[in-house]
Amino acid sequence: MKKEKILETLTDIARQLNIKVRQEKGDFAGGYCVKEQEPFVLLNKRHMVDKRICILAREIAAFDISGMAIPPAVMKVIESERKRATEIELETTADDE
Q: Which alpha helices (H) appear in the chain, and where do they start and end?
């Protein structure tokens, strides 16, 4: 599956979760935000498609997507980001001890 199609599919999944996806240019990393009680994921258009995919997949991974029909290639990206987020959380917890 092409990277643009993966990003498009992730955007559709976010919409199904009632999360808007905004792609803008600027000096920011991107991620999940809530403004005026409306959730959205902000992606930086200046980032490579790979990075935008990772950011959006990481944010989607935090939600229950078990009942959704997700193509295997996209699910693989989401699971990879879920695993990465868990590893980072474990490292942070170990550093705090």
A: 3-16, 49-61, 72-96
In a 13 Å sphere around the CA of 61, the CA atoms on its Cβ side amount to 20
For domain 3-96, the question of CATH label 3.90.320 is answered with no
Q: Which two tokens stand for residue 20?
A: 């808007």
User: pLDDT for 50-64, tens place per residue?
Assistant: 999 999 999 999 999
| Residue 63 backbone dihedrals phi, psi, to 5 degrees | -105, 160
**Cβ atoms 52, 77 nearer than 8 A:** no
Q: What is the pTM of this model?
A: 0.86
